[in-house]
Amino acid sequence: MTSRALINQESFMKKILVAFMTACVVFLAGCSKIEVKNEKGWWTDYDECLKAASESGKKIMMVISADEVEKSGETLKQELFYTEVFMQKYQDEYEFCEIDVSPSLIVNAFPKNNIPEAIRNDKAKTRKFLNEHKKGQRDAAKILEKRMKIMATFDVTHRPMMVFITKEGYPIADVQYFPSAQIETFDEIIEYYSPRITEYLTLVETAHNSTGLDRVKAIDDLYNRTSNSYRYHLTELMREIPKLDKENKSQLVGKYLLALATSDTIDATIARKPHKIAQIYEKVAKNKFLSKQEQQQAYFAELYIIGKNSPTDKELKQMKALLDKIILLDPSSPIGMQAASKLEQLNEFIKRREEYEKKIKEESEGSDN
Fold this sequence. Notes:
The protein has helices at residues 3-27, 46-56, 71-81, 84-90, 123-153, 183-209, 212-225, 235-238, 240-244, 253-270, 277-285, 292-307, 313-329, 334-368; strands at residues 59-65, 94-100, 161-165, 171-175. It is α+β, with helices and mostly antiparallel strands and 369 residues long. The radius of gyration is 26 Å and the shape is globular.
């Protein structure tokens, strides 16, 4: 993973954090009824769909849309996905899941404390109403967190979007463009992706049937074939690598410790604990199985986290220390040379800031006299 990739990953995590903080505000405005499957036979709860796929052995076909604001998603559902022809053709092979992030699914029902006039003078009915409202808010919070996690960990940048997923929950590929809502057109899409799906399923089977260092290699092959946007969903498989190869004979342990740090930072962001992210990278950077370049990557990620907002004087010192560590590890590597450039910029920034603060202080003292 390059330093640029790490920066993009941190930007991605920042997007997750913003989405979740926004979600916390939204769900307080209304409530929603928990639903796991709609009347058309499509799962609306991804976790429940994943359980069903694990039991049935089917793959998952997940559609993510916002039907109220993007009508193309609703059109595809009504004219294609919900049709009897479509269901009969693909239901033996796939569990169907739809994730609709339309606003009314989050903000609906009734506003807080808007007690109906007819029951305002009845304490018992008012209490019952408020209790039901609180339950509705809790239900809305659960739905919201689940759907925001899907939006973030599947890196949804376009809607409607379809993702093909294994029964274990490993994303295979996504479709972000549908030329039409005709079944013939969708058949062509399936035909196009079929070789990739088959190849990916073979890699999954190989990983599951392997043991020891062979399993390490098989997991690595699967990881490399998985899009960078979807590797978070391989986290549990990645956690096996350090356990399977305790002496790092594969020379892959450092790679996966760093990848796991990225997964852990995503979890910390989703849990709204961004203060823990820098600590995660600091800890993994000290692991003996990381190569010098991997250590540099970990420190660079920590550097980005500390400096992405307006850093304090203490944080500026931390950033300088991290840049020194990166350079000391290998000054001739691409990250080492980038760190040297960053250190020059940081020193210049600190110098100008100190000069500005000194000037302000002198002007303030002069005006007092």
